[in-house]
Amino acid sequence: MRIGRKTSAFLLVFGLWTWILWPNFLRNIWKDDRSWNDGPTAFFLVHLALTVVSFAAGNVIGWLGLKGLRASRTAA
């Protein structure tokens, strides 16, 4: 299966956006008063899981975009 150049670029930008969005989100959740009460709260753990899964998915999507751009460049 081949991915077009525009789609590959979109996927790569999405992956880069992940690197901007999710670390900042986790920093904000870490500082939130609801995150800690003699250890991590359920609020924190749920948001941590959301961050980890979303960050991993964003990395895979960005990697696919990069791979698609490289393949389209060598095919041209």
Could you give a short description of this structure?
The chain is 80% helix and 0% strand. The chain is built from 2 helices and no strands. Helix 1 (5-31) packs antiparallel against helix 2 (42-75).
Give an overview in words.
With 76 residues, this protein is mainly alpha-helical. The chain has one domain (5-32, 44-75). It contains 2 helices and no strands. Helix 1 (5-31) runs antiparallel to helix 2. The longest helix is centred in the C-terminal third of the chain and has 34 residues, at 42-75.
Please render the helix and strand layout as text.
Layout: H1 5-31, H2 42-75
Helix pairs in contact: 1-2
What gross morphology would you assign? rod-shaped
Largest sheet: none
Helicity level: over 70%
Q: What sequence of helices (H) and strands (E) makes up the elements?
A: HH
List keywords for this structure.
76 residues, mainly alpha, 80% helix, rod-shaped
